[in-house]
Amino acid sequence: MYYTRQPHPAGLGDAIYRARSFVGEEPFIVMLGDDLMNDKVTLTKQLIDEYDKTHASTIVVMKVPHKEASKYGVIDPGDMLDKDLYNVKKFVEKPAVDKAPSDFAIIGRYLLTPEIFDILEKQKPGRGGEIQLTDAIDTLNQTQRVFAHVFKGQRFDVGNKEGYLETSIQYGLRHPETHDALRKYIIELAHELEKK
Ligand code: G1P
């Protein structure tokens, strides 16, 4: 295990850059801790399987309602290369809803080649005055192919209060240690709330 600290919240790109010496010259995976993913094959394995075929950086996207696109990095998908795999034309960090090039939002898993670090080293602040990973990926896409893998599983976002509470309930109901007691509690609570 290796830990690094970001002393100031200077953006996702700045945070990832701090892993440069640990990663070295190898492709690597970024997993944002506030995005939890569920699928039969883990999403990380899905990304590694794509990489084995393409040897290219691949980011994960998911369709979101159009009005929510401005909360995410969004792609202009370009051609579909394979089932659930696009050769991306453009990456835009949190565009205005009317400027969003598609409804494909970037979610918190990325497989990146180490050339991203040379770009992040020189990356100027973007949206919100922060160093944006999305901007660096857009630059990488001009010299190497960058693909988007469409995720079809379930995503839980614990980066907001409501999502955090819902995810805790969902995971508590799935876990054998907590399932029975939590289920009972929820049913009792629902009855109580109905009476009110
Ligand atoms: C970050 C990325 C954004 C991505 C999102 C996924 O934004 O900058 O491109 O769509 O994670 O959760 P944040 O949620 O940190 O604002």
From TrEMBL:
Pathway(s): Carbohydrate metabolism; nucleotide-sugar metabolism
GO MF terms, alphabetically ordered: UTP:glucose-1-phosphate uridylyltransferase activity
Domain named Nucleotidyl transferase: residues: 3-169
Protein name, as recorded: UTP--glucose-1-phosphate uridylyltransferase
Keywords per UniProt: Nucleotidyltransferase, Transferase
Entry EC no(s): 2.7.7.9
Species per Swiss-Prot/TrEMBL record: Lactobacillus amylovorus subsp. animalium
UniProt keyword annotation of Magnesium present: no
InterPro entries attached to this UniProt entry: GalU_uridylyltTrfase_bac/arc, NTP_transferase_dom, Nucleotide-diphossugar_trans
Protein family according to the UniProt entry: Belongs to the UDPGP type 2 family.
Reactions catalysed, as given in the entry: alpha-D-glucose 1-phosphate + UTP + H(+) = UDP-alpha-D-glucose + diphosphate
